[in-house]
Each structure stands twice: as structure tokens, then as C-alpha cells.
Fold:
Amino acid sequence: MVLENLPEILVAVFTFQNLLFLFIGIFIGIIFGAIPGMNGNLAITLFLPFTFQIPSVPALLMLTAIYFGSAFGGSISAILINTPGTGQAMATLLDGYPMCQKGQPHRALDAALVASTVGGLISALCLLLFAPQLGKAALNFGSPEYFILALFGLSVIATVSGDNIFKGLIASGIGVLLGMVGIDTISGIPRFTFGSMMLYNGLKMMACMLGFFALQQMINRVRESALCRISDKEITNLKKARKDDRYTAKDFKDCISIMLKGSFLGAIIGAIPGTGGGIASYLAYNEAKRRAKTGEEFGKGEVKGVAAPEAANNGATAASLIPMMTLGIPGSAVAATLMGAFQMHGLSSGPKLFEDHTVIVYTILIGCVIAQFVMLLQGKCLMRLFVKITHVPYELLTSGLMAVCCGGAFAISNRAFDVKVMLVMGMAGYLLQYFELPMTSLVLGLILGPTAEFYFRNSLSVGNGNWLIFFQRPICVGFVVLLLALLYLLKKKKLGD
Structure:
């Protein structure tokens, strides 16, 4: 099927519109990644409403490119000001900032860029090669399998998204309840509408996500602005670099094996739901440090200490989309947001995605590979511009993004009600965060809740109300066993701690 559509896929990939939105996505992602307190998830949430008037392929290419760009962008502020732009870049500052202090900021930035490109490229190739195969294996799913899979996804993310399993489950439950608002598609009875006609069609997922992810974060930024403000003295001046401040072919040769190991490690970890690039970057850094040669001083400005974590955290990016696209189980918070984006554009994540939308999906997968080269090109040509982003006043950024949030919420359906929903969800998200309830679990409940309900009722209808239908199929039993094993291991780990 893929070979038959290959000419059409290649033509779609290399259209001017698709390449343009890839460039735009990488640019936005690097900027949001480079600003401390921002991240790719926030950028995707903010720009998603503005993609509704754009065809699905360029829109989704832009959103995935934002994800890739932000993974690299976090290293810019980590290297220059000792403050990681994203959580994934925490390990990068261990050697990145010392290199900067030694007068080698360009060398550190180029090392991060090259390692990010290698990691992102391997991750994108893993997505292109393995996701379709996993999708084919899952084509035999029926309604019971889909329900158990949705339940498994909800439970997995809930149990690994925080230190407290029960808080994660509570957050997922709240998300499921929010997804039930509106008219029941089977019985036609209004649920949780409280007599408001505006709620008959349910809560717009995008308005809720803007509130929970974007607005809630803006409220935090306002509250913590005094702590997060960066003084001019802390910003590295690139003009004070040493004469030997450049990334050489010898650096690449010395780091290539470490970059490859970190990339594959990141891809493996990224494909496991609930892990992500932060864990991968620390593991890759520790492995590189463990195998350090004589004369290599990790923590004091070693170029390998920048290459290893950057290759790993970018290696986890595209790989985290594998379970999301094939099974409907996001591997990270960003993957959960992208899953919502796919649904907003009429592409339901799961086993049938590759069968029902072959050309669109493969165009996006190949676009993910091309995005890595676009990131390398932009990093080389526009690095000085990206560095200047760290100088933008904190207050100006926050107020501007607040305006974008409101504009994005209104753009969903061109009605003020969605702005109100966003404001309410933003305040609710801030309150829930105070009780340490994970937002990722809540949003995933909102996304997967309606799907789980639909297939649950469908399964009972097929089985004439017999609940044993969920335990009579091998795949269902397998996922139940996996979930119980995960809960047992997490409980055992907690008791051990």
C-alpha cells in the first residue's frame, strides 16, 4: 500500500507549503525552547487553534516541528545562562555552561545543535520504520481491545505522571468527567450541561487544553516573575569568545559514538509511555561520564558532556510519537497534546490511522525526518537571533502570550464562550496544580475518556451485556496483565523508596 502511494507521498512532502510550515514550526519551537519557563508543549497548545484554517498535513507538520525545535532550543539558555529552557536540557547545562565560562559558547552551541540533529534524525527514522509495523500488528483490534487499550493508556499515564499514583488516577477521572459534558451520542440525553445550551456540544478540547497547559502556566509565570527574571549580567556575550571557540571535525569524530549511543537510548526510552527526554538525557550523560577517557573532565566543560544528553533528549522526541500514533497511548505530555491535534484535524490516533490515512501519515513521518535537517540549517544560520531571545523582557512575553491564549480560544469556534471556558479551566488548572494533580493525566482523560466510553458501551452491546467479553480475548488479557504488573512494580518501588 505504501509503495503504491509512494509517488503521491513524495510529491506531498516536498510541496512549498509543507516545507514552509516545517521551517516555521522549527523556528517557533527553538524560540519557545530557548526561553526559560516556556516549552514545546506550550507552543503547540498556543498555535494549534490557528491551524484550523490550514490543511491537515502542513498544520501537523508545523506542530510536530515545533516539538523537535523546542527540544534543541532548551539547550541555548542552558549553555548561555545556566538556566535550561526546557526540562529536557537539565543535563546539558552541566558541561554546557562551564564551556561558556571558558570562552567557548559557539563550540558548545554547535555541539548541541549537531547532537540534536543526530538524535532527532535517528528518532525520526525509528518512527518511520517501526510505527507502521506496530500499526499493522494492531489492525486486528475490536471494540473490547480498543476499550482496554484506552483504559491502559489512561492508567499508564496516570501512574507514571507523578509521585502519587492516586493523584494521577484522580486527575484522569476528572478529565473523563469533563469529556462527558454534552449530549450523549447514544441516548441523546444531556449530561452535565446545567441547562446551558452552550454546553450541549460539550467542552471544546482545545479551549480546555489552552486553559490547563497555557493559561495555567502564564498564571504561574506572573506569580513567579520576580524569581525568574534574568539580569543582563547573567547573559553571556558571544563576542567575548576565545579564538579557538569553534566546533571542529575532530570534535564530531570524538563525539559520534556517544551521540549514536545517546540517540538510540533516547529512542528506546522515548517510546515508553510516561518517560521522556529528561530521563534519557541524564542516563546518556551518566553513561558518557562512566566511559570517560583520561583527560576528559565532565562537569568542567567537556564537549562530550553536551553531545550525550542533547542526542538523547532529541532521540526521544519522534520516538515518543510511536505509541501515540499506533496505539493511542502518548509517550509524553507533548505527545498527548499532539494526539489532540491529530483528532482536531480528523485523524484519530490508533491502529487504523495508517490504514485510513496512509498518504497523510507517511507524509508527516517523512516530514519528521526532513525537519531535523531544517533544524540544523536554522541553527547554523540564525543562532545569533535565537540567542537574543533570552534578552526579551519577561513581562512583555507573559502579557503577549496571554493575548495569544485568548485569541486562540476565540479562533476555535469564533465565540466568546470558549474564551470563558479557557479562563475557567486555567484557574481550575492552577488550583489542581496546587494539590499536585498532574495536568497530563487530566488532559489525557479528556482525550481518551469519550473513546473509552464509546468502545465500552459498544463492547457490552456486542456481548449482550456480558462483562466477561473483556477477559475472553488474548490481547485484552495481555494489556490487563501488563497494567497489573506496572502497578505492582510502581508500588514496590514506592515501598523501597
